[in-house]
């Protein structure tokens, strides 16, 4: 017995996080590229003082029971924490941390990559060239829709939503937003963003970008009714959580021309099944949940997750604790 805190880290994360943990703790890292299967996860957390989880690891009463009474902290390597039963942790006095702020701009950049790619059919066009279909400059070849001057609807104006809206000024866009709460008027003025209801946003926007957290009131938020309100020329971008969109309704809307195209960084389920109807559609871009995947940002996230873990095992307040269930 070394007397050092015992911690389990559920995947290899950047050294900016692993090094400080290894210095202070008895560290057990899940080395596989795939997440620990449930049984392995339950076995490895037993007797730990702290665990560092990813959005692929479900933290619930069963896992907390498996960890046992020594567990003081769950540090989630993500800004979203819908994988963590925060109320169950609170009942046991277990602190929960996440990595807000670190990935805001990086995620907004990827949302914009999808906005531009889906509007201008960039992925489809690249595929067309790669498969040898390009024969001539075509007057009507691969026509998309303009981003410059279009109306952007931001659903959820938290940190990431605001960062996406801020970028719209360079594109001369009209910015609408809907949100649980209207933001301060200084923020609205800075972003040039107008608060509207979700139905109005869906009806008026050329591009709809989703930036809500996953909670009971946002699960299935974009369903068949919501899609039917959108323009037939509209683009839907989702970099939030897959279940915010009803995948069957989206596939039908894209197939039937209810909306023009979609860019998804998140799906339901993840990974998406190889035979999912969305993957059979030319007008749907699907990325493997990479919005925060830059070297710098993943390093920052690792350092933040480590700082939360180390504070938690020492019984100190976490630098970035989560605000509460669904916050
Ligand atoms: C990624 O999706 C995150 O929540 O950090
Ligand atoms: C994440 O940083 C958010 O609250 O939008």
Summarize the structure.
The protein has helices at 15-24, 38-44, 61-67, 86-91, 104-119, 122-130, 159-167, 185-191, 198-204, 224-229, 247-255, 295-313; strands at 6-9, 26-29, 50-53, 73-76, 95-97, 151-155, 174-178, 193-195, 207-210, 235-238, 261-264, 284-286. The protein has 327 residues and is of the alpha/beta class.
For the record, the CATH architecture of the largest domain stands as: 3-Layer(aba) Sandwich
- The overall average pLDDT, rounded, is 97
Q: Would you report the number of β strands?
A: 12
Rg (C-alpha, Å): 21 Å
Overall 3D geometry?
A: globular
The proportion of strand residues reads 5-15%
Instruction: Say what the CATH topology of the largest domain is.
Output: Rossmann fold
* Alpha-beta content class: alpha/beta
How many structural domains does the protein architecture include? 2
- Order of the strands making up the biggest sheet: 8-7-6-9-10-11-12
H-E order? EHEHEHEHEHHEHEHEHEHEHEEH
| Largest sheet entry | 7 strands, parallel
Oligomeric state of shown chains: single chain
Name the CATH superfamily assignment of the largest domain. Answer: NAD(P)-binding Rossmann-like Domain
The unreliable regions are none
CATH first level of the largest domain: which class? Answer: Alpha Beta
What's the N-to-C terminus distance? 39 Å
